[in-house]
Design a protein that fits this description.
heterotrimer, A alpha/beta, B mainly alpha, C mainly alpha, B: mainly alpha, about 85% helix, globular
C-alpha cells in the first residue's frame, strides 16, 4: 500500500470487555471505496468511529498520510467528513441555516447560492424555509448529505448512508459517491443495502466472524 | 481561530433564540428560589438584608446548574456535537465558545434580574451595585466549571442530579467570595479584596476549565 | 527488578498478593502500639481531660483523607498521560478508603467538638473543608458508579479528581478566610501551644498505621478489580478456577 492516504495498522477494538476485532490492516488510496460489512454488533460503527478519531483504539493506530491521526488531529479533520447514525441536523433551524452553521464550524466562508443549489440538487427546493423539525427523516438525511457535499473533504466516512432514503435518493447517493471517487476522493462506508457502483474500485472488509452472503 | 469561536457563539445564541421557553424557565427558577426564602424565614427587613446576598448567590448557582445539563446534551442527541468535535478547530475552543454562549444566555439575564430581587431583600443601593459586580465576575465561573460537569455526565442516566453532585462543591469559592463581597460592603469592611479574589478565581477557571472539559468531552464521546 | 514489569496487571496481581500480609500485620501492630501510646502513655490534658484523646484518631484520619485524595489525583494524571490501566485501577481502589477516612475525621471531629466547644458541629475552616472533601469523594464514586463503560469511567473519574485537586486548596483557603471573617479567631483546633513529644509520637504512629492499612486495603481492592477486568485472559481464568 505505497500510495494509501488512509491506512490502518494492527488495529484492535473492544467494546466494554468484548474484543470486537484485532490485527486489522488495510490501506485506502485516492479514488477507492471501502465497504465495511458484517452483521449487527460486529463492530462496523466502532471501526468507523476509530477511523474518525472519535474513539481510541485498544491497540494499533490509524494513519493519515503516514502519520498517526492522534498526532495530526485537526489537520486530518479538515480533510475528513463523517456522517453517522444521527444526522447532526438541528431541528430548530431550516436547512440553509443548518448548512451555514456547518460551514462556520469548519472555518469556511458560507456561500449561500451554492448551498441553495446543493439543497435543490438533493430535491429539497420546497423545504428551504421550513425548520428541520417538520421534515421527514429522509429529508433530514438529505440535509446532512448536502453538508457532506459542501464540506469538500477528501475522505468521506459514512455510517449506513442509505438508511431512510427512498429509491430516487439511493440512485442520487450512488451518483454522488461515484463522482466523489472519480474526482479523486475516498469513501469508507457501511451499508446493509446493495450499492450499484459500476466502474468503481471497491474494497470489501468483513468485520467480525459471521459470514454474510455477497450483496451485489 | 476567533472566527470559529464566533461561529460557535452565533450558533448557540441563534438556537437559544429559537427556544425561548427553556430560557424563560431558568430565569423564573432564579426568581422563584430567591422568593421562597422570605416566605421561609419571615419578612423582617434586617434579617432579609442579612441573608439576601447569600440567598441570591445560592439561587444563581442553582439556576445555572439547571441549564447546564443541556449544554452538550441536545447537540449530543442529534449528532451535531460529533460534527463539531470533528471540526478542524481544537475542541478547547468549542468548549470555550459554548461556555461563553451559556454565560451570555443564562448568566447575563441574572445580572438584570438580581437588582429587582435585591430590592425585595431590602439591600442598599451600594450593596446592589456590589452584588452586580460580584455576579458579573462570578457567573462566568459557573458556566466554565459547569462545562466540565456537563461534559463528564454527558449521556448518563440521571446525569442532571449527578452534575449537581459533582459541580456544587467546586462552586464554593465563587459563592464565598461573591456573597462575601456584598456582606463586606454592608459591614463596612469593603468589597475590594473579595472582588479581586473572585476575579482571580474567574481567570483561573478560564485558563483551566475549558481544557479539562474538552478532554472530558472526548472521553464521553468515545 | 524492573519496575516496568509490575505495570502489567498480571505481575502486579502476584506482587500485591505477596505484599498484603506484610502491610496488614504492619497496620495491626502499629495500631496497637499507637493506641497504647494514646491511651496509656500520653498524659491527661489539664484543660480537656480525657476527651482530647480522640485526636489520636481524628488527626491521622484527616491527614489520610487529604493525602489519599492527592494520591488518587496522581494516579489519575499518570493514567491519563501514559494510558496505563493499572493507574486507573489504583485510583479506584483508593477512593472508598479515602471517603472512609474523611467520614471518620468528620465524626471524630464532632465527638471532640462537643466537649470542647459545646456543639456537635461548628463551621470551622478545617471541618468545613473536610465536609467538602467528602462531597468530592462521593461525587467521584457516584460518577464511577454511573458510567458502565470501564474505560470512559476511568478517564472521567480521573479528570474529575484532577480538577478537584486543583480546587481543594482554593476551597480550603476560601473557607478559612470566610471563617475568620464570620467568627473571628476564637476557635482554633490546634491551640495546644506545646504538644508533648509523646503525643506527637502517638499521632505519627497512628498515621503510619493508617497508611499501612490504606495500602493493604487498596491492594486487596486492586486485586479484585484486576481479576474482574482481566477475567477473559488465561492467567485470570486459571486463578478463578483454582479458587
Amino acid at each position: 500500500m505505497p500510495d494509501a492516504l488512509l491506512s490502518v495498522h494492527d488495529l484492535a477494538c473492544a467494546r466494554g470487555e468484548r474484543l470486537l476485532f484485532k490485527g486489522m490492516n488495510f490501506g485506502l488510496g485516492k479514488g477507492e471505496l471501502l465497504l465495511v460489512q458484517g452483521g449487527n454488533g460486529q463492530g462496523k460503527t466502532s471501526l468507523l468511529r476509530l477511523l474518525t478519531g472519535l474513539a481510541r483504539p485498544e491497540e494499533g493506530e490509524v494513519r493519515w498520510r503516514g502519520e498517526s491521526i492522534r498526532r495530526v488531529g485537526e489537520a486530518y479533520h479538515g480533510e475528513m467528513c463523517y456522517l453517522g447514525h444521527a444526522n447532526g441536523v438541528k431541528d430548530d433551524l431550516n436547512p440553509v441555516e443548518n448548512l451555514r452553521f456547518a460551514d462556520g464550524m469548519h472555518g469556511r466562508a458560507f456561500d449561500q447560492t451554492r448551498a441553495v443549489a446543493t439543497l435543490e440538487r438533493l430535491g429539497l427546493s420546497r423545504c428551504l424555509d421550513l425548520p428541520c423539525r417538520v421534515l421527514s427523516f429522509g429529508q433530514r438525511r438529505r440535509v446532512a448529505l448536502a453538508a457532506l457535499l459542501l464540506a469538500g473533504a477528501t475522505l468521506w466516512i459514512l455510517d449506513e448512508p442509505l438508511t431512510g432514503l427512498d429509491v430516487h435518493a439511493v440512485v442520487l447517493m450512488e451518483g454522488l459517491i461515484r463522482n466523489h471517487l472519480t474526482a479523486g476522493g475516498m469513501v469508507v462506508a457501511t451499508t446493509h443495502q446493495a450499492l450499484n457502483l459500476d466502474g468503481v474500485a471497491v474494497q470489501r472488509l468483513l468485520v467480525g466472524n459471521v459470514a454474510i452472503p455477497a450483496l451485489m | 481561530m476567533h472566527r470559529f469561536l464566533l461561529a460557535v457563539l452565533r450558533r448557540d445564541l441563534t438556537l437559544a433564540a429559537r427556544r425561548r421557553g427553556d430560557w424563560l424557565i431558568a430565569q423564573f427558577f432564579f426568581v422563584m428560589v430567591a422568593s421562597l426564602f422570605p416566605l421561609g424565614v419571615g419578612p423582617e427587613p434586617e434579617m432579609l438584608a442579612r441573608i439576601g446576598p447569600g440567598v441570591l448567590w445560592v439561587a444563581a448557582t442553582l439556576a445555572s446548574l439547571l441549564s447546564l445539563t443541556r449544554l452538550f446534551a441536545d447537540d449530543h442527541h442529534d449528532g451535531s456535537l460529533e460534527h463539531m468535535v470533528l471540526s478542524p478547530e481544537p475542541t478547547v475552543l468549542l468548549v470555550l465558545g459554548k461556555s461563553i454562549a451559556h454565560w451570555l444566555i443564562y448568566g447575563v439575564p441574572l445580572l438584570l434580574i438580581a437588582p429587582v430581587l435585591g430590592i425585595q431583600f431590602h439591600l442598599s443601593w451600594e450593596a446592589i451595585m456590589v452584588l452586580e459586580l460580584s455576579l458579573l465576575l462570578g457567573t462566568p465561573i459557573l458556566s466554565l466549571l459547569g462545562s466540565v460537569g456537563a461534559a463528564l455526565t454527558l449521556g448518563l442516566r440521571g446525569g442532571g442530579v449527578l452534575l449537581t453532585l459533582l459541580i456544587l462543591p467546586l462552586y464554593i469559592p465563587a459563592l464565598i467570595f461573591g456573597a462575601g463581597a456584598v456582606d463586606g460592603v454592608m459591614a463596612g469592611t469593603g468589597a475590594e479584596a473579595h472582588l479581586s479574589l473572585l476575579g482571580a478565581f474567574m481567570v483561573l477557571s478560564l485558563m483551566i476549565a475549558p481544557w479539562i472539559a474538552a478532554a472530558a468531552l472526548r472521553v464521553s464521546l468515545e | 527488578m524492573n519496575l516496568y514489569t509490575y505495570a502489567s496487571p498480571a505481575n502486579f496481581y502476584v506482587l500485591a498478593g505477596k505484599l498484603i500480609p506484610w502491610f496488614s500485620w504492619g497496620a495491626g501492630l502499629l495500631a496497637v502500639w499507637g493506641l497504647y501510646i494514646s491511651f496509656f502513655l500520653a498524659p491527661t490534658d489539664f484543660q480537656q481531660s480525657e476527651a482530647y484523646r480522640i485526636i489520636f484518631i481524628h488527626v491521622p484520619a484527616a491527614w489520610m483523607s487529604m493525602f489519599i485524595y492527592l494520591v488518587m489525583a496522581f494516579w489519575g494524571a499518570i493514567g491519563l498521560a501514559f494510558n496505563t490501566r493499572l493507574s486507573f485501577m489504583m485510583a479506584r481502589a483508593l477512593a472508598p478508603t479515602g471517603a472512609l477516612f474523611t467520614f471518620i475525621a468528620l465524626w471524630t471531629g464532632a465527638l471532640w467538638g462537643k466537649p470542647m466547644w459545646g456543639a456537635w458541629w461548628v463551621w470551622d475552616a478545617r471541618l468545613t473543608s473536610e465536609l467538602i472533601l467528602l462531597f468530592l469523594y462521593v461525587g467521584i464514586i457516584a460518577l464511577w458508579a454511573a458510567i458502565d463503560d470501564v474505560r470512559r469511567g476511568d478517564r472521567a473519574g480521573s479528570l474529575l479528581t484532577l480538577i478537584g485537586a486543583i480546587n481543594v486548596p482554593i476551597i480550603y483557603f476560601s473557607v478559612k478566610w470566610w471563617n475568620t471573617l464570620h467568627q473571628g479567631s476564637s476557635i482554633n483546633l490546634m491551640k495546644a501551644p506545646s504538644m508533648a513529644a509523646i503525643m506527637l509520637q502517638g499521632m505519627l504512629v497512628m498515621a503510619i498505621a493508617a497508611w499501612f492499612y490504606t495500602i493493604a486495603v487498596a491492594l486487596v481492592r486492586v486485586r479484585r478489580i484486576i481479576l474482574e477486568r482481566e477475567r477473559q485472559t488465561d492467567w485470570a481464568k486459571a486463578i478463578l478456577e483454582n479458587e
